[in-house]
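Notes continue from the previous slide.

Worked example: a multi-chain complex. Inputs as given:
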Amino acid sequence: MKTYLDCLPCFMNQALRVGRIATTDEKKIKELLDSVGAMIKDFSLDNTPPEMGNIIYQKIREITGVNDPYKKIKEANINEALSLYPKLKEIVRKSENSLLTAVRIAIAGNIIDFGVNKKFNIANHFLEILEQDFAIMDFDKFVEQLEKANSVLYLGDNAGESVFDKILIEELGKPVTYVVRDIPVINDVTEKDAIDSGIDEVAEIISSGTSAPGTILSLCSDDFSEIFYNADMIISKGQGNYEGLSDVMRSVFFLLITKCPVIANDLNVKEDDIVLKAINFGSSPN
Amino acid sequence: MKTYLDCLPCFMNQALRVGRIATTDEKKIKELLDSVGAMIKDFSLDNTPPEMGNIIYQKIREITGVNDPYKKIKEANINEALSLYPKLKEIVRKSENSLLTAVRIAIAGNIIDFGVNKKFNIANHFLEILEQDFAIMDFDKFVEQLEKANSVLYLGDNAGESVFDKILIEELGKPVTYVVRDIPVINDVTEKDAIDSGIDEVAEIISSGTSAPGTILSLCSDDFSEIFYNADMIISKGQGNYEGLSDVMRSVFFLLITKCPVIANDLNVKEDDIVLKAINFGSSPN
């Protein structure tokens, strides 16, 4: 997805939000906003938004010296999600279609996102989302491709959401490789966060090699790109991965909540909708 | 009021909003956002926010060639407000305290504001605000100073709101000088807008000499500053004038709706509160 004009003020808001998480020093936050503001003129709208996210987080590390501002928040979100895990398993077990229920749970987990300007309550929002109608619902294609696949590449998004991903992985019934960011960025899931979420018990964990808050192949490692293009089936979680991959030339299943008006508009749905969208289904490769 | 960190992303939002009113050319809007972003590093938080508003609107004029992007919107708002005028006069006539009702009406008119990121419906919001409790209510001081004053200096804010101001001016019972911006900026009231609102029938209209969307004395004409400091009583409408004058060393009565969280916080009230606040009441000068 290209960058829209609306994303530009939002970059400043992101910088302010994370600046305040990283430091209480107003001068450093002003310096950060000065830098981000000055970089906008060099940022082409042909880039995807997470590329700017990547630059903003580099600046945050430089200016504040803090490498993982969301560390404690991520730990708290993982622990809260883990406390819900037994209940989630019970919901899946009792449901008519356990795969569909697990898909819903994985999407509901996408509510945990500090990259957008919205507050959330995991336990409250989560139950609402489980009942919500899908705005885009390509579940039939999802099942069809899953049945044919020998393995699944699963692109994680946020820490804590990763626990909800585990529920879906357990229902896929295929070997899964779970992809994490290379270093901490916003509250995105890293290798440590994935292990803390118990993903290592159900999937192989690999890094995409990127520090951007989304899967932008040009910023990922060559090894990852090869895995990406050769995967039988790709499940991509969340907005950042959608922004990076919406125009990619292979089949991908996007599972997300649209938490920003720009992405909702790009998908032709409303804000706060839930989406299971297939792109390039049935085309080659995969 | 100084500029808060939260104002910096808001400047970008303002630029985007007015850029889209002024032109449909995305390249020009990007150029505008590039310029505003780059100027943030040279903007001290010790300045007041309307000083940045002033710079943003200069850039809009330069880049788009459009001097009055809100011209048609202002005309529509004035006409809608004029259509409500007979009903407003009736409400005042029937009320127990006609001056207080006129104050409420003048504050309710402050809902017409394109400088903030909120949508409004004049007729709907207006009736709600007439019933709303004041968050700050210095009406007794207002009455006391009005009784002593030989004349009143009334600082207008938005076009359309000016019709609601006329209602209050008619109840003040003193000679009034109504102050407008020197040139069009956002939807702020200019001399032409004031005349279209019928203000010339009830007050003398003068310009503050500024192109900023607020009364910042250092940007106003010397003539205006002299009038300002010698006025018996000053009524200041809206957020922009509050931002410019909240720290001024003379008595001022601020009438406004707090439409932004930063200004609400500065006034120690909530967003969407209604305020009649006296500063430096009883102190010299005036």
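Summary box: The two ends of chain A are 21 Å apart (CA to CA). The interface with chain B takes residues 5-6, 8-10, 12-13, 15-16, 19-20, 26, 29-30, 33-41, 45 of chain A (CB under 8 Å).
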